[in-house]
Amino acid sequence: MNKVDSGVPASGGRMRIARSRGAATGLLLLLLGAWGALIPFIGPYINFAYSPNQAWFWTNARGWLEVLPGAVTALGGLLLLTTGNRAAAMLGGWLAVFGGAWFVVGRTFGGLLTLGDTGTPIAAREVTRVVLELTYFSGLGALIVFLGALALGRLSVRSLRDVQRAHVATAEPAVATPTAAEARTEMIETPAPRHAEPDDPQYEGLVEPQDVEREEPRHRGFGGLFRRHRETTGTRR
After folding, report:
1. What is the DSSP letter of 156?
2. Interacting residues of 112 by C-beta distance below 8 A, sequence separation 6+
3. What would the 3-class secondary structure string for 73-84 be?
């Protein structure tokens, strides 16, 4: 399969994921875990329970076989819902899988491990018994395992979106570095100003005021006029 060049380096930030990656699955697992942990205590209010049909009545069986897997599942769902770290999210997925599996097989090991008996369904019809079995144990556990496995499958794949998000998060702020041409330009010093020279074509026509010799104004008197007149008359002769 051809690799697509995304223009983003694939290395770095492998543990970063978008929080939305497992948000929906995490929310469902959180609700299912809360249901599994609380339904044995509130179910008797509506005659939807296993014996003993007493609300908020604690037994070892309820604690080990319903509250424990429900709490583990809810914790896994909370991790999936809130974390932006791949390892923490995968831990949440595995917790959900283990919690769901314990809902399914916990009663099988209950007698062997002396965890207690969950009792019998309080139902007059067979349909109600089946619904109780599915919503309390086997059906609930199977759904939790499915959602946990789905979350683990999504988290095991590093998508292009994850790579781009990790690259943006780990990239340092760009520092403006001068280019080679700019560096050379900065190294060239502006020539110091010098006095204009008449023979320099670069400064042709430019004469600084301080270099111009100012001639003193000559005061012309009557003596000057007679002297010039005598010089002119001598030349003609």
Report:
1. T
2. none
3. HHHHHHHHHHCC
Strand partners, 16: 85
CA distance 56 to 68: 15
Q: Domain residue spans in the chain? A: 19-170
- pLDDT, tens digit (0-9, with 9 covering 90-100), for 165-187: 556 655 544 444 555 555 555 55
What is residue 20's DSSP assignment? G
CA-wise closest residue to 199 among 207, 191, 190 = 207
Q: Does 112 score more than 80 pLDDT?
A: yes
The token pair at 194 is 């010098």
Beta strands (DSSP E) in 1-62 are: none
Task: Kindly state the average pLDDT of the residues 198-221.
Answer: 52
> Which single residue is written with the structure tokens 């097989």?
105
Residues 81, 27: contact at Cβ < 8 Å? Answer: yes
- The Cβ-side half-sphere exposure at 54, using a 13 Å CA radius, reads 8
The first and second tokens of residue 161, run together, are 């979106």
The alpha-carbon radius of gyration of the chain (Å, integer) is 47
For 48-61, letters b (16+ CB in 10 Å) and e give bbbeebeeeeebeb
Residue 218: its H or E element: none
